[in-house]
Amino acid sequence: MNKILDKVYKNQIVGTINTYIRMINESDKLNENGLGIIENEWYSYLEEDGKTFVAVLKINCQEEKFHFKEGEWKELNVNMFANEQLKKLQRRFKS
């Protein structure tokens, strides 16, 4: 695959994850029970096959891994904001 396109795909998923983190953390500020917080600093890597993007987030001081298969992040027509894993994460923290 073209290295430039790979960079575009990675930037797209990283930006989407960062947006979800901001939305969840902002909504937590409004919740008097404080359901939890996701640290802004996180890391990611590609599994050896180069097709699975793994995001490692720290949620309530515990690391959680999210695995995104190639079809979930490495295509031009992917809508990351409709990703089920990220929507499920957001629902966990809804007030």
What's the gist of this structure?
It contains 3 helices and 3 strands, in the order αβββαα.
What does this structure look like?
There is one protein chain. The protein is α+β, with helices and mostly antiparallel strands. Helices cover 43% and strands 19% of the residues. The protein contains three helices and three strands, in the order H-E-E-E-H-H. The protein has helices at residues 3-30, 70-73, 84-92; strands at 43-46, 53-59, 62-68. Strands 1-2-3 form a three-stranded antiparallel beta sheet. The radius of gyration is 14 Å and the shape is elongated. The N and C termini lie far apart (42 Å).
**Overall radius of gyration:** 14 Å
What is the N-to-C succession of helices and strands? HEEEHH
Distance between the termini: 42 Å
- Average pLDDT rating: 86
Strand order of the largest sheet: 1-2-3
Shape: elongated
Structural class: alpha+beta
Helix content: 40-55%
The total of beta strands comes to 3
Largest sheet: 3 strands, antiparallel
Strand content: 15-25%
Secondary structure topology:
Blueprint: H1 3-30, E1 43-46, E2 53-59, E3 62-68, H2 70-73, H3 84-92
Antiparallel strand pairs: 1-2, 2-3
Features:
three-stranded antiparallel sheet, elongated, 95 residues, single chain, alpha+beta, 3 strands, 3 helices
